[in-house]
Predict the structure of Carboxy-S-adenosyl-L-methionine synthase.
Amino acid sequence: MTSESTKPGPGKPKDSGRDNIFTAPGTTSPFRFDEQVAAVFPDMIQRSVPGYSFIISGIAGLAQKFIQPNTQAYDLGCSLGAAALAMSRGSQHTNIPIIGIDNSSAMVERCRLFIEGYRHKNPIQIHCQNIQETTISQASMVVLNFTLQFIEQSERQAIIEHIYDGLEPGGALILSEKIVASDPAVNELLIKLHHDFKRANGYSDLEISQKRTALENVLVPETLETHHLRLKNAGFKVSEVWHQQFNFCSILAIK
Ligand SMILES: C[S@@+](CC[C@H](N)C(=O)[O-])C[C@H]1O[C@@H](n2cnc3c(N)ncnc32)[C@H](O)[C@@H]1O
Ligand SMILES: O=C(O)C(=O)C[C@]1(C(=O)O)C=C[C@@H](O)C=C1
């Protein structure tokens, strides 16, 4: 049994294999969160998302401030449960139900194994379910860490509104997303810097380009303006960026 604060965690590459999914020429079928991806996910996300570890640590810090007694916390699109574990670790309170949701059975199976392997001070339950069908209630904190970008754009507003309705006043939504910069030249620059980051982390040009093709129409990024407007329309009083590295951004929205 490993303590929550002891490395490695589910967001750390040491937990499973290296991501070689896009090394073979011709690997361009649409990206899916299947067993192959789940098996290498800690390595994939660590080497692909600039600032990922910082965001996970930040979620623990935000949990310390936002999680309140007699409420619940949600990790929507939890993958292997890194944000759920961070909330449990960061919370000042015990016995706060932390509910992780993911619709990939491969992720959910591995997530449950990870969670079992950790001593945590709050009960964590993992459900294999669509976020669109998840009931959210008495929430003091909800995390969407690089998940909304994979959901149909037409369904995003309703999800944010549903989260708003399930949050207690003063509750927080952490929304992390790959974004599109409004200025086309800056957007191209951020994409280039992201690709440089991936190259520096050992991905080849072929892997980068094949994954880019596989993510087309699967991961659909939006501008920060679109996210702020959606949050405002849902009723959030505040939405501010608390972290950004290149085109990867995390917003804190408060009810
Ligand atoms: C990039 S991963 C999230 C990473 C994770 N939040 C973390 O911090 O490590 C996106 C996850 O969202 C899940 N997902 C995508 N669409 C979903 C939906 N409609 N309902 C539930 N889960 C969904 C995928 O299966 C995948 O595990
Ligand atoms: O690898 C990329 O280019 C990404 O956009 C990163 C990204 C993400 O943002 O969710 C895409 C898919 C995987 O889930 C891991 C990371």
